[in-house]
Amino acid sequence: MEGEAIISSAPLPPPEVIRQTAEKILKGSDYHIEAVQYDLSLMERVLKFIGNLFRPLIKLFQGFFDVSPVLGWVVIVVLAFVLVALIVHIIYAFKTALQSRMKPSDLAMQEEGMVDKPALWEERADKAAAASDYISALRFLFRAGLLRLEEAYDRTFKRAATNREYLRRFKQTPAFEPLSLFVEVIDTKWYGGNVCMSDDYQKGKDAHSSIRRIAMELKNAQRT
Q: Which domain holds residue 154?
């Protein structure tokens, strides 16, 4: 009839058929009724190993607390202090080892503005010579001389160049001879592992004076 809902339905299958169909679905490979179980055997073994490793220490602390809770806490505080001291010592030793592996010139270059100021390198050279560190003093004077030549020629040299490369750039200039002395001494005494003596430093100081003079003469010639 018009206005009335007409409901038609097919007859349901027997209960036994429904049960068998449900069992077939549940047993199928595409359906997992149980939650996924993760294999925690490796983690369990690791935790067990850590527990066995620290068990004697835990028993020791427990023994202190059994004797006296105050004693137990005193031992914990002392050990914590020792642990912090060891960590600080390791960090300090590691930092010192890194600094000792750095070349003196590299440490000097960390000072602000020292890379492009020859006067600061010359001052550092004087301090190194006063401490009998002659090879460092020569390296500082060599750097100072190159910087003064940069100023005289009004150009910047490549910082990654080797000493021999610097020397070749001045082969046809008056600065070649004094620069050669620095390169030879540095190669034989610094890289060669030989001892640099005060006489070597004095020769380097004289060579640096020559470089300063050459640079000054070049500047004066450019002004005229």
A: 106-219
